[in-house]
Amino acid sequence: MSAPLAVSVAAQAKVNLRLVILAREASGWHQLETLFLRLELADSVRVRRTSGPRSLDVSGDVDLSAIGPVERNLAWRAAESFADATEMRGGFAIEIHKRIPLGGGLGGGSADAGAVLRAMNAMADAPLSPDALIGLGERLGADVPFLTTTNAYAFAWGRGERMLALEPPPQRAVTLAFPEVHVNTADAYGWLSGLEAGRRAPGLLLRVDELSDWRTLAPLASNTFEFVVPQRFPAIQRLVNDMWTTEACLAMMSGSGSTVFAVAADATPDMPPALRDAAVRTLATRTAGRVEPVVPIE
User: Fold this and answer.
1) Which of 112, 174, 171 is nearest to 147 (CA)?
2) To the nearest 5 percent, what fractions of the chain are helix, strand and coil?
3) Is pLDDT at 228 greater than 70 in this prediction?
4) Read out DSSP for 213-242?
5) Active site residues
6) pLDDT band per the 50, 70, 90 thresholds, residue 54
7) Which end of the chain is more exposed for a tag (fewer CB within 10 A), N or C?
8) Residues 294, 31: Cα–Cα separation, whole Å
9) Cα–Cα distance between 206 and 43 in angstroms, integer?
Protein backbone atom coordinates (compact mmCIF):
# COMPACT_ATOMS: atom_id res chain seq x y z
CA MET A 1 0.00 0.00 0.00
CA SER A 2 1.51 3.31 -1.09
CA ALA A 3 1.88 6.27 1.25
CA PRO A 4 -0.79 8.99 1.04
CA LEU A 5 -0.11 12.17 -0.93
CA ALA A 6 -1.95 14.45 1.52
CA VAL A 7 -2.89 14.20 5.19
CA SER A 8 -4.50 16.25 7.92
CA VAL A 9 -3.69 16.30 11.62
CA ALA A 10 -4.77 18.23 14.69
CA ALA A 11 -1.90 20.16 16.30
CA GLN A 12 -3.00 20.08 19.94
CA ALA A 13 -1.96 22.75 22.44
CA LYS A 14 -0.20 21.86 25.67
CA VAL A 15 0.06 23.13 29.21
CA ASN A 16 2.83 22.50 31.73
CA LEU A 17 1.40 21.11 34.96
CA ARG A 18 4.88 21.25 36.44
CA LEU A 19 7.85 23.16 35.05
CA VAL A 20 11.17 23.35 36.89
CA ILE A 21 13.98 25.22 35.13
CA LEU A 22 17.37 23.87 36.17
CA ALA A 23 20.97 24.66 35.16
CA ARG A 24 21.91 26.65 32.07
CA GLU A 25 24.34 24.83 29.79
CA ALA A 26 27.31 26.47 28.10
CA SER A 27 25.34 26.14 24.85
CA GLY A 28 22.68 28.48 26.24
CA TRP A 29 20.04 25.75 26.62
CA HIS A 30 18.50 25.14 30.04
CA GLN A 31 17.94 21.77 31.63
CA LEU A 32 14.36 21.32 32.78
CA GLU A 33 11.84 18.96 34.28
CA THR A 34 8.24 19.23 33.19
CA LEU A 35 4.87 17.52 33.02
CA PHE A 36 3.36 18.11 29.58
CA LEU A 37 -0.39 17.63 29.11
CA ARG A 38 -2.15 18.17 25.80
CA LEU A 39 -5.44 20.00 25.43
CA GLU A 40 -8.31 19.45 23.01
CA LEU A 41 -7.73 22.98 21.68
CA ALA A 42 -5.85 22.50 18.40
CA ASP A 43 -4.74 24.08 15.15
CA SER A 44 -5.72 22.27 11.93
CA VAL A 45 -2.76 21.23 9.77
CA ARG A 46 -2.84 19.86 6.23
CA VAL A 47 0.27 18.76 4.38
CA ARG A 48 0.50 17.69 0.75
CA ARG A 49 3.45 16.32 -1.19
CA THR A 50 3.91 18.12 -4.50
CA SER A 51 6.13 18.02 -7.55
CA GLY A 52 6.52 21.77 -7.41
CA PRO A 53 7.87 24.36 -4.95
CA ARG A 54 7.51 24.40 -1.16
CA SER A 55 4.83 26.59 0.44
CA LEU A 56 3.26 27.50 3.79
CA ASP A 57 -0.13 29.22 4.18
CA VAL A 58 -1.43 30.27 7.59
CA SER A 59 -4.95 31.46 8.38
CA GLY A 60 -7.10 31.75 11.47
CA ASP A 61 -8.57 34.06 14.07
CA VAL A 62 -5.22 35.15 15.51
CA ASP A 63 -2.86 38.06 14.93
CA LEU A 64 -1.24 36.72 11.77
CA SER A 65 1.13 39.71 11.66
CA ALA A 66 2.87 38.26 14.72
CA ILE A 67 3.79 35.02 12.95
CA GLY A 68 6.89 36.47 11.28
CA PRO A 69 8.70 35.41 8.10
CA VAL A 70 8.19 31.94 6.66
CA GLU A 71 11.80 30.86 7.14
CA ARG A 72 11.50 31.39 10.92
CA ASN A 73 8.19 29.55 11.25
CA LEU A 74 8.61 26.36 13.27
CA ALA A 75 6.29 24.36 11.02
CA TRP A 76 8.31 25.40 7.95
CA ARG A 77 11.60 24.60 9.68
CA ALA A 78 10.22 21.20 10.73
CA ALA A 79 9.25 20.40 7.14
CA GLU A 80 12.62 21.53 5.81
CA SER A 81 14.48 19.46 8.40
CA PHE A 82 12.41 16.37 7.57
CA ALA A 83 12.99 16.85 3.85
CA ASP A 84 16.74 17.20 4.41
CA ALA A 85 16.94 14.19 6.74
CA THR A 86 15.08 11.93 4.31
CA GLU A 87 16.47 13.44 1.08
CA MET A 88 12.88 13.93 0.02
CA ARG A 89 12.33 14.72 -3.62
CA GLY A 90 9.71 17.21 -4.74
CA GLY A 91 8.00 19.89 -2.72
CA PHE A 92 5.34 20.26 -0.05
CA ALA A 93 2.37 22.48 0.64
CA ILE A 94 1.45 23.17 4.27
CA GLU A 95 -1.83 24.79 5.31
CA ILE A 96 -2.36 25.75 8.96
CA HIS A 97 -5.56 27.12 10.41
CA LYS A 98 -4.66 28.68 13.76
CA ARG A 99 -6.87 28.42 16.84
CA ILE A 100 -4.17 28.36 19.51
CA PRO A 101 -3.34 31.95 20.55
CA LEU A 102 0.19 33.00 19.65
CA GLY A 103 3.02 33.42 22.12
CA GLY A 104 1.10 32.51 25.27
CA GLY A 105 2.93 29.44 26.55
CA LEU A 106 0.50 26.95 24.97
CA GLY A 107 3.02 25.62 22.46
CA GLY A 108 1.07 26.59 19.35
CA GLY A 109 4.09 26.95 17.05
CA SER A 110 5.68 23.85 18.53
CA ALA A 111 2.44 21.90 18.11
CA ASP A 112 2.33 22.88 14.44
CA ALA A 113 5.95 21.75 14.02
CA GLY A 114 5.27 18.42 15.70
CA ALA A 115 2.14 17.92 13.60
CA VAL A 116 4.08 18.64 10.40
CA LEU A 117 6.77 16.12 11.34
CA ARG A 118 4.13 13.47 12.01
CA ALA A 119 2.30 14.34 8.79
CA MET A 120 5.39 14.17 6.61
CA ASN A 121 6.46 10.91 8.21
CA ALA A 122 3.03 9.43 7.41
CA MET A 123 3.55 10.37 3.74
CA ALA A 124 7.15 9.18 3.52
CA ASP A 125 8.07 6.14 1.47
CA ALA A 126 10.58 5.20 4.20
CA PRO A 127 9.29 6.67 7.48
CA LEU A 128 11.69 7.65 10.22
CA SER A 129 11.65 5.87 13.58
CA PRO A 130 9.90 7.64 16.48
CA ASP A 131 13.29 8.36 18.07
CA ALA A 132 14.63 9.89 14.85
CA LEU A 133 11.51 12.05 14.55
CA ILE A 134 11.96 13.26 18.14
CA GLY A 135 15.58 14.03 17.28
CA LEU A 136 14.43 16.39 14.53
CA GLY A 137 12.02 18.02 16.96
CA GLU A 138 14.73 18.50 19.57
CA ARG A 139 16.58 20.92 17.30
CA LEU A 140 13.51 23.16 17.10
CA GLY A 141 12.75 23.76 20.79
CA ALA A 142 12.04 22.16 24.16
CA ASP A 143 8.30 21.67 23.51
CA VAL A 144 8.60 20.13 20.04
CA PRO A 145 9.84 16.63 20.99
CA PHE A 146 6.76 15.97 23.16
CA LEU A 147 4.43 17.46 20.55
CA THR A 148 5.98 15.19 17.92
CA THR A 149 4.97 12.07 19.85
CA THR A 150 1.59 10.40 20.14
CA ASN A 151 1.59 10.85 23.92
CA ALA A 152 -1.16 12.96 25.48
CA TYR A 153 0.79 13.24 28.75
CA ALA A 154 4.43 12.80 29.66
CA PHE A 155 7.14 13.67 32.13
CA ALA A 156 10.08 15.20 30.26
CA TRP A 157 13.56 16.23 31.32
CA GLY A 158 16.91 17.26 29.86
CA ARG A 159 16.12 19.65 27.04
CA GLY A 160 12.64 18.19 26.76
CA GLU A 161 13.80 15.33 24.55
CA ARG A 162 13.89 12.66 27.28
CA MET A 163 10.40 11.50 28.10
CA LEU A 164 8.39 9.04 30.10
CA ALA A 165 4.88 8.57 28.68
CA LEU A 166 2.19 8.58 31.36
CA GLU A 167 -1.47 7.70 31.58
CA PRO A 168 -3.26 11.06 31.33
CA PRO A 169 -5.35 12.10 34.32
CA PRO A 170 -9.14 12.00 33.84
CA GLN A 171 -10.33 14.64 31.39
CA ARG A 172 -11.32 17.92 32.96
CA ALA A 173 -12.71 21.22 31.75
CA VAL A 174 -10.07 23.93 31.40
CA THR A 175 -10.45 27.71 31.29
CA LEU A 176 -7.70 29.64 29.53
CA ALA A 177 -7.30 33.36 30.20
CA PHE A 178 -5.20 35.72 28.09
CA PRO A 179 -4.02 38.97 29.68
CA GLU A 180 -3.11 41.83 27.37
CA VAL A 181 0.61 41.43 27.96
CA HIS A 182 3.37 39.74 25.98
CA VAL A 183 6.15 37.80 27.69
CA ASN A 184 9.33 37.39 25.69
CA THR A 185 10.62 33.88 26.42
CA ALA A 186 14.28 34.87 26.15
CA ASP A 187 13.69 37.69 28.64
CA ALA A 188 11.92 35.30 31.01
CA TYR A 189 14.91 32.97 31.01
CA GLY A 190 17.16 35.96 31.62
CA TRP A 191 15.15 36.99 34.67
CA LEU A 192 15.71 33.52 36.13
CA SER A 193 19.46 34.16 36.27
CA GLY A 194 18.87 36.55 39.15
CA LEU A 195 16.59 34.18 41.04
CA GLU A 196 18.07 32.70 44.19
CA ALA A 197 18.41 28.94 43.91
CA GLY A 198 16.52 28.48 47.17
CA ARG A 199 13.42 30.12 45.68
CA ARG A 200 13.21 27.75 42.74
CA ALA A 201 10.83 24.83 42.98
CA PRO A 202 13.01 21.84 43.90
CA GLY A 203 13.24 18.66 41.92
CA LEU A 204 11.12 16.00 43.55
CA LEU A 205 11.14 12.23 43.71
CA LEU A 206 7.91 11.79 41.76
CA ARG A 207 5.84 8.64 41.99
CA VAL A 208 4.26 7.62 38.70
CA ASP A 209 1.03 6.54 40.36
CA GLU A 210 0.59 10.06 41.78
CA LEU A 211 0.85 11.76 38.39
CA SER A 212 -2.34 10.42 36.81
CA ASP A 213 -4.72 11.37 39.64
CA TRP A 214 -5.73 15.02 40.01
CA ARG A 215 -5.93 14.71 43.81
CA THR A 216 -2.26 13.78 44.14
CA LEU A 217 -1.07 15.63 41.03
CA ALA A 218 -2.42 19.08 41.89
CA PRO A 219 -0.15 19.62 44.93
CA LEU A 220 2.88 18.93 42.71
CA ALA A 221 1.94 21.68 40.22
CA SER A 222 4.59 24.40 40.05
CA ASN A 223 6.21 26.72 37.52
CA THR A 224 9.62 28.31 38.06
CA PHE A 225 8.66 31.21 35.80
CA GLU A 226 5.94 32.20 38.28
CA PHE A 227 8.73 33.44 40.57
CA VAL A 228 9.80 36.09 38.04
CA VAL A 229 7.17 36.77 35.36
CA PRO A 230 4.16 37.91 37.45
CA GLN A 231 6.42 40.36 39.33
CA ARG A 232 6.89 42.19 36.04
CA PHE A 233 3.33 41.67 34.80
CA PRO A 234 0.94 41.99 37.78
CA ALA A 235 -2.04 41.27 35.51
CA ILE A 236 -0.86 37.66 35.31
CA GLN A 237 -0.81 37.27 39.10
CA ARG A 238 -4.27 38.83 39.35
CA LEU A 239 -5.56 36.27 36.85
CA VAL A 240 -4.00 33.37 38.76
CA ASN A 241 -5.65 34.64 41.96
CA ASP A 242 -8.99 35.02 40.20
CA MET A 243 -8.78 31.53 38.73
CA TRP A 244 -8.39 30.09 42.22
CA THR A 245 -11.81 31.55 43.07
CA THR A 246 -13.38 29.21 40.51
CA GLU A 247 -13.99 25.56 41.25
CA ALA A 248 -10.45 24.64 40.27
CA CYS A 249 -8.10 21.95 41.45
CA LEU A 250 -5.18 24.02 40.16
CA ALA A 251 -4.62 27.43 38.58
CA MET A 252 -1.29 28.59 37.19
CA MET A 253 0.63 30.10 34.31
CA SER A 254 1.63 27.86 31.41
CA GLY A 255 5.24 27.89 30.23
CA SER A 256 6.82 31.32 30.35
CA GLY A 257 3.38 32.92 30.00
CA SER A 258 1.35 34.86 29.58
CA THR A 259 -1.59 32.40 29.40
CA VAL A 260 -3.13 31.45 32.74
CA PHE A 261 -5.18 28.27 33.01
CA ALA A 262 -7.43 26.62 35.56
CA VAL A 263 -8.38 22.93 35.65
CA ALA A 264 -11.81 22.00 37.03
CA ALA A 265 -11.85 20.15 40.34
CA ASP A 266 -14.40 17.61 39.11
CA ALA A 267 -15.78 16.08 35.93
CA THR A 268 -18.46 18.70 35.25
CA PRO A 269 -18.55 19.60 31.54
CA ASP A 270 -18.18 23.35 32.02
CA MET A 271 -16.09 25.63 34.19
CA PRO A 272 -17.43 29.20 34.17
CA PRO A 273 -14.65 31.72 34.82
CA ALA A 274 -14.97 34.14 37.72
CA LEU A 275 -12.72 36.99 36.65
CA ARG A 276 -12.78 40.51 38.05
CA ASP A 277 -11.64 41.94 34.73
CA ALA A 278 -14.46 41.17 32.32
CA ALA A 279 -12.35 42.51 29.44
CA VAL A 280 -9.88 39.62 29.70
CA ARG A 281 -10.37 37.14 26.89
CA THR A 282 -11.09 33.56 27.98
CA LEU A 283 -11.43 30.30 26.11
CA ALA A 284 -12.95 27.01 27.24
CA THR A 285 -11.40 23.67 26.36
CA ARG A 286 -10.63 20.32 27.98
CA THR A 287 -7.57 18.29 28.82
CA ALA A 288 -6.89 15.61 26.22
CA GLY A 289 -7.21 11.90 26.80
CA ARG A 290 -5.45 11.02 23.55
CA VAL A 291 -3.55 12.44 20.60
CA GLU A 292 -5.55 12.76 17.40
CA PRO A 293 -4.15 10.54 14.62
CA VAL A 294 -2.83 11.61 11.22
CA VAL A 295 -5.67 11.20 8.72
CA PRO A 296 -5.00 10.46 5.00
CA ILE A 297 -7.09 12.70 2.74
CA GLU A 298 -5.66 11.76 -0.65
Assistant:
1) 112
2) 30, 30, 40
3) yes
4) SHHHHGGG-EEGGGGTHHHH-HHHHHHHHH
5) 14, 143
6) very high
7) N
8) 31
9) 32
